[in-house]
From TrEMBL, chains A, B:
<feature type="domain" description="Nicotinate/nicotinamide phosphoribosyltransferase">
    <location>
        <begin position="151"/>
        <end position="341"/>
    </location>
</feature>
<comment type="similarity">
    <text>Belongs to the NAPRTase family.</text>
</comment>
<dbReference type="GO" id="GO:0004516">
    <property type="term" value="F:nicotinate phosphoribosyltransferase activity"/>
</dbReference>
<dbReference type="GO" id="GO:0016757">
    <property type="term" value="F:glycosyltransferase activity"/>
</dbReference>
<keyword id="KW-0328">Glycosyltransferase</keyword>
<keyword id="KW-0662">Pyridine nucleotide biosynthesis</keyword>
<keyword id="KW-0808">Transferase</keyword>
<dbReference type="InterPro" id="IPR040727">
    <property type="entry name" value="NAPRTase_N"/>
</dbReference>
<feature type="domain" description="Nicotinate phosphoribosyltransferase N-terminal">
    <location>
        <begin position="5"/>
        <end position="129"/>
    </location>
</feature>
<dbReference type="InterPro" id="IPR013785">
    <property type="entry name" value="Aldolase_TIM"/>
</dbReference>
<dbReference type="InterPro" id="IPR036068">
    <property type="entry name" value="Nicotinate_pribotase-like_C"/>
</dbReference>
<dbReference type="Pfam" id="PF17767">
    <property type="entry name" value="NAPRTase_N"/>
</dbReference>
<dbReference type="InterPro" id="IPR007229">
    <property type="entry name" value="Nic_PRibTrfase-Fam"/>
</dbReference>
<protein>
    <recommendedName>
        <fullName>Nicotinate phosphoribosyltransferase</fullName>
        <ecNumber>6.3.4.21</ecNumber>
    </recommendedName>
</protein>
<comment type="function">
    <text>Catalyzes the first step in the biosynthesis of NAD from nicotinic acid, the ATP-dependent synthesis of beta-nicotinate D-ribonucleotide from nicotinate and 5-phospho-D-ribose 1-phosphate.</text>
</comment>
<dbReference type="InterPro" id="IPR041525">
    <property type="entry name" value="N/Namide_PRibTrfase"/>
</dbReference>
<dbReference type="InterPro" id="IPR006405">
    <property type="entry name" value="Nic_PRibTrfase_pncB"/>
</dbReference>
Length: 432, 432
């Protein structure tokens, strides 16, 4: 499917006016960055890059799209001719997917003609803003969950396509699996699921439902025990599943108290290996509160797919430099009021201490080294229009997950704290 | 594109176990409803139905999807055979798209075999929860804006496909137009847009940029005047565009104060007909605060596409009745803890007073009449698997927009208040 109309009308009217003035062809640099993190968050997580690169392959205009733009008079004939042959031929570099970011980190840099960089603006921001918001929330949940696996199960609470992207972002941030089948099919992500309350209600009794489930899915399945009465549900589950019953799921009530006595009941009944999954409206705080409860895994839905209070990463995409008519690079930036930014192409390094622990995000207008232990943050994604395929699909998700894990390990431990605070490392803007 | 894998894994494992137990074929009724509105909201707006019906046409399983489900062992062979021939053959009724809803309004009712209703659960909820959340927020913005048009421009702040659905939902709720081109192409929605700060920065001066824009897009275009200095920007805009300049856009700073003196400046310069559009992080409260400022239209982005603090409508989809093995209908409901609901198929009527103003949402387990002025809320969407095409595409959006307008007009005026409060009309659950 073509991705080129996932674009704001004004990108194409700007293109039209710039084609007419001749400025459309000026070599330009755009940067995507976040002016700040959501209030109280210690770090953000870059996600969506792999999806962006995949979509960029299909970012061109076919006859039907051109006809729409022509019929609705969005742009004139000259612009339609330009779009007819549109293919991104420039350069995209940026933070690896899964990497952490901080205020003013230059997350993605696009260098091309103004025309090309302008036309792909909306698409870039849609993907980075959504996927990074989800990954940033997911990463905090993983920090709260410690060694217990988290299952992403929020598909029903968000747009059907966002759900697929959210599952992908959650896996990058460390989730173990997802309920979303399309995400499994597209990205090779592990999917899981057993049954809902409707399955129990469908049958003539809870025992009949559990028997049907165990007969079909095996004794290692997880039975949902809170449709009627939790204690009776657990006893029936054990009666039906026996000592090899895989797990029970609790989806309502006071989960901390319940998990405690359900564990004891399971142990009393000899089901020491039957696990407990909890799933009712969890977020990073509820997960943290459950740390001392005998829970084996968490299912997270609404809070994950809505970014736990911050459903968008608020990244912007700004022209920071462009050539003038003499071919000289000119740094540019908006000056008015409360949205100032720094002109010029940025380079970023994560400064480390002698134990390879991050100490600062250092951003400069030239390529540089801090002189000490450090890690360069920008990698090439698109070179002369050639997209690096290794970041797309299942392999991209694996890479991003590994990158995220390594970047989190590199942070001071305070990064994992849920309490509101400043970014865990400062962003230092160098003068050179 | 097929929609059938926009589904949680557990829908298919439930299907498998129910096929094995024989219960899969029991005639069943599921209902989608919201237990409550987001805190303080006076009403919710149903949206997504047209998208759902369109997607339902493509809800079947092709070879690649079946191979995925087989390779990953999501389900067994018997279940794959069932899915191979899957087509929804049941009945869907519900609230018209654009209609208002309240706690426990039976928004969508699906009657079919358990198997069919179960398999489409996740997809139904994804669409209704997302689109209704956006439409509900959009409707409040329209109430705040009064007669001034609102432009949807949040595409860059949400997933690229959510953006299209959000634009559609905004139009249903009364927005005038969108920036999203794909929404224009799919649903015949009016798209608008002119230029961004990057366009000004691209050129050698603001005047050069404005000249390029006016030359290409005409004098009735809207110039963005806050890249450098707003006053100088307005003067340059008038110099370039003359008295026929269409508009200026303010995207930063104190919009209330700015709009005031910019209007005076425009008037002083003779540009009485040049309009002022404001666009910086507006939500329903900011729009209300601007009511007395001389603003002509509002561009709304982030707050719209994220549901203004409530990005999901939290609807659930519950089995409320099913037949037993003797063919008798049995009302069913979860009983445990904090998520109880009422079993049995619901019917809903909006009770009106003699001036056709709504006074209550009346819900009953049987078809009924209040005896006074009233409006039946449920309409047929799918009958014996036959989808009513009139709700799909551009015609569906038009119908939904008209329905929303009429339903809002029918409400007491307090519905338009932004202050937190109870639902504007009570939901009365009748005992019969």
């Amino acid at each position: 499917m073509l991705t080129s109309l996932f674009t704001d009308h004004y990108e194409l009217t700007m293109l039209q006016a710039a084609l007419a003035s001749g400025a459309a062809h000026r070599p330009s640099v755009f940067e995507a960055f976040a002016r700040r993190l959501p209030e109280g968050r210690r770090y953000g997580v870059v996600a969506g890059t792999g999806r962006l690169l995949e979509g960029l392959k299909n970012f061109h205009f076919d006859d039907a799209q051109l006809k729409f733009l022509s019929d609705t008079k969005v742009v004139n004939k000259e612009t339609l001719s330009y779009l007819e042959n549109f293919k991104f031929t420039g350069e995209v570099t940026g933070y690896a997917e899964g990497e952490l970011y901080f205020p003013n980190s230059p997350i993605l840099t696009v260098r091309s003609s103004f025309a090309e960089a302008c036309v792909i603006e909306t698409y870039i921001l849609s993907i980075l803003n959504h996927d990074s918001a989800i990954a940033s929330a997911a990463s905090r949940m993983i920090a709260s969950a410690g060694t217990r696996p988290c299952i992403e199960m929020g598909s029903r609470r968000t747009h059907e396509e966002s759900a697929v992207a959210a599952a992908r972002a959650a896996i990058i941030a460390g989730f173990d699996s997802t309920s979303n089948l399309e995400a499994g099919a597209r990205y090779g992500i592990k999917t899981v699921g057993t049954s809902a309350h409707s399955f129990t209600l469908l049958h003539d009794s809870e025992e009949a439902a559990f028997t049907a489930q165990v007969n079909s899915l095996g004794k290692d399945t997880t039975l949902l025990v809170d449709t009627y009465d939790v204690e009776a549900g657990v006893r029936t589950a054990v009666k039906v599943g026996g000592p090899q019953l895989g797990g029970v799921r609790l989806d309502s009530g006071d989960l901390i108290a319940q998990a405690g006595w359900v564990r004891e009941l399971l142990d009393d009944l000899g089901n020491w290996n039957t696990k407990i999954t909890v799933t009712s409206d969890l977020d990073e705080y509820a997960i943290a509160a459950l740390a001392s409860a005998p829970v084996d895994s968490y299912g997270v839905g609404t809070a994950l797919v809505t970014g736990s209070g911050h459903p968008t990463a608020s990244m912007v995409y700004k022209l920071v430099a462009r050539q003038d008519s003499a071919g000289q690079w000119i740094p540019v930036a908006k000056a008015a009021a409360n949205k100032t930014s720094v002109g010029g192409r940025k380079h970023a390094i994560r400064q480390l201490n002698e134990r390879n622990r991050a100490t600062a995000e250092v951003v400069s207008l030239s390529e540089f080294s801090t002189g000490g232990p450090e890690r360069k943050l920008s990698i090439p994604f698109v070179t002369n229009g050639e997209i690096d395929e290794s970041y797309i699909g299942a392999s991209g998700v694996k890479k991003a997950r590994a990158r995220h894990y390594a970047s989190i390990q590199e942070m001071p431990g305070v990064a994992r704290k849920l309490q509101r605070g400043e970014p865990v490392i400062p962003t230092i803007m160098r003068e050179d």
